[in-house]
Write a structure and sequence with these properties.
Elements (H helix, E strand, L loop, with lengths): L1 E8 L4 E4 L2 E6 L7 H14 L6 E5 L5 E6 L2
Parallel strand pairs: 1-3
Antiparallel strand pairs: 1-5, 2-3, 4-5
């Protein structure tokens, strides 16, 4: 399933509303650390392994498209 994700920095939360997710990230957006935290948080929230969560687009943006394979 694909989701539109909006990222907010310096916060720690996950809100899912239909196919839209708002998520707070505490890691700094350098060298992929924020993307890695995003994947780990979503995997934990949806109870799937991190390998089942993938960023489809928006690697360097606050707005991303995420795919979660079940």
């Amino acid at each position: 399933m694909r989701y539109e994700v909006t990222v907010e920095f310096h916060r720690d939360f996950v809100r899912v509303n239909g196919n839209k997710i708002a998520i707070g990230i505490t890691s700094r957006p350098e060298k992929g650390k924020a993307n890695l935290e995003l994947i780990k948080k979503l995997a934990k929230h949806f109870s799937v392994p991190s390998s089942k969560v993938r960023i489809v687009s928006g690697f360097k943006s606050k707005r991303k498209i995420i795919e979660i394979m079940e």
